[in-house]
Amino acid sequence: MLPEYAGFVFYTPSRRYVDLGTARHLRELLDERITTVGVFVDAPILQVVAAVESGAISMIQLHGSEDQPYIAELRGALPRTPLIKAIAATDTCSIETASHLDVDYIMVDNARPGSGESFDWDLLRTLPTSMPVFLAGGLTPDTVSGAARLGVYAVDVSSGVETDGAKDPDKIRTFISRVRMARQEGRV
């Protein structure tokens, strides 16, 4: 049971940080059908470009304060690489503003992204229906089925499938299974 995506965090303060060499090695170990995503927080453009050009990642997730000029510069350097912009679900205005960025996907997370806490999912209803949305924040094997009713494009999980700070293979399998069941029911 494969996930569709695997993320590599290139943000040094994160406990999940990996360097580029480790990310390239992990990419080699993964099934080629899994899309690898680089997670960056206000990183220099050249760092992001280097990660893509190395073959370690094939998608970019921006998780900082990157604005449209930054995104435009990144698009100029990597025009074919899909971009995800993570935003904090603080209010409908922040979600609406982010939906106008020149990105391929929006990831809606809680006000403290990466904390594993949920947020008011009703805020998602303010997004344009044409905007593909990744939902993150507070998802676990027990909550992902409820999240699926929102009709999001994809779900993103990290701490929700960990035990004592490490990825738990059983939780990961259960999470993926529940996402797949929701998808079969037409909810994801």
Q: Over all CA atoms, what is the radius of gyration?
A: 16 Å
Question: Looking at the structure, what is the overall shape?
Answer: globular
CATH-derived topology of the domain at 1-81: TIM Barrel
Poorly predicted regions are none
Major sheet: arrangement of strands: 1-2-3-4-5-6-7
| Amino- and carboxy-terminal Cα gap | 17 Å
Count of β-strands: 9
Contiguous helical run count: 6
- Helical residue percent band: 25-40%
Helix and strand sequence: EHEHEHEHEEHEEEH
Q: Which CATH class of the domain at 1-81?
A: Alpha Beta
Q: Label the CATH architecture of the domain at 1-81.
A: Alpha-Beta Barrel
How much of the residues is beta strand, in percent?
Answer: 15-25%
Q: Which superfamily, in CATH terms, is the homologous superfamily of the domain at 1-81?
A: Aldolase class I
Mean pLDDT: 86
Major β-sheet, in short?
7 strands, parallel
Assign the structural class, choosing from mainly alpha, mainly beta, alpha/beta, alpha+beta, or little secondary structure: alpha/beta
What are the key terms here?
188 residues; alpha/beta; TIM Barrel; seven-stranded parallel beta sheet; two-stranded antiparallel ribbon; 6 helices; 19% strand
